């Protein structure tokens, strides 16, 4: 029984590490896109099909179906800088609406 639990725990750790490395990799790629290029938050000009497909696979929608869960209060949201019309997301390139949402929404953790 202990051995089975140890294997299960190890699988959980390995899966978590893989998922974490994928998120870190996505985050690095998302930073390469210049958000000041976007004319508005729905402007996907300059993004290739793979990037557009990625946001679709994550269930990105410009209007959140859950009022209290939006990109604007998500831990992965990149707020717009002074010269940017929109914020971004750490998981994919391109602009996102502050009132948007995807299935990877995670509550923002307050900095202490
Ligand atoms: S809700 Fe989804 S698209 Fe919006 S910032 Fe969070 S992870 Fe990115």
- Assign the structural class, choosing from mainly alpha, mainly beta, alpha/beta, alpha+beta, or little secondary structure: alpha+beta
Tally of strands: 3
Spell out the helices and strands N to C: HHEEE
* Helix percentage range: 25-40%
Largest sheet, in brief, is: 3 strands, antiparallel
Description:
By secondary structure, this protein is of the alpha+beta class. The protein has one domain (2-96). The chain is built from 2 helices and 3 strands; from the N terminus they run ααβββ. It has a 3-stranded antiparallel beta sheet with strand order 1-2-3. Iron/sulfur cluster binds at residues 60, 71, 74, 76-77, 89, 91, 96, 100-102, 104-105. The site of iron/sulfur cluster (SF4) has 13 residues, from loops.
Features:
single chain; 9% strand; 112 residues; 3-stranded antiparallel beta sheet; binds iron/sulfur cluster; alpha+beta
Please outline the helices and strands.
Blueprint: H1 2-30, H2 49-57, E1 77-78, E2 87-89, E3 92-96
Antiparallel strand pairs: 1-2, 2-3
Bound molecules: iron/sulfur cluster.
Brief summary:
This protein is an alpha+beta fold and about 110 residues long. The protein has two helices and three strands; from the N terminus they run ααβββ.
């Amino acid at each position: 029984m202990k051995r089975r639990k140890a294997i299960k725990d190890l699988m959980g750790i390995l899966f978590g590490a893989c998922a974490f490395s994928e998120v870190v990799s996505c985050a690095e790629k998302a930073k390469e896109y210049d958000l000041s290029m976007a004319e508005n938050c729905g402007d996907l000009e300059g993004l290739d099909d793979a990037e557009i497909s990625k946001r679709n696979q994550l269930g990105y929608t410009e209007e959140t179906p859950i009022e209290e869960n939006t990109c604007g209060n998500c831990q992965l949201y990149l707020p717009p800088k002074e010269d940017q019309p929109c914020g971004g997301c750490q998981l994919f390139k391109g602009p996102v609406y502050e009132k948007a949402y995807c299935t990877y929404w995670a509550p923002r953790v307050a900095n202490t």
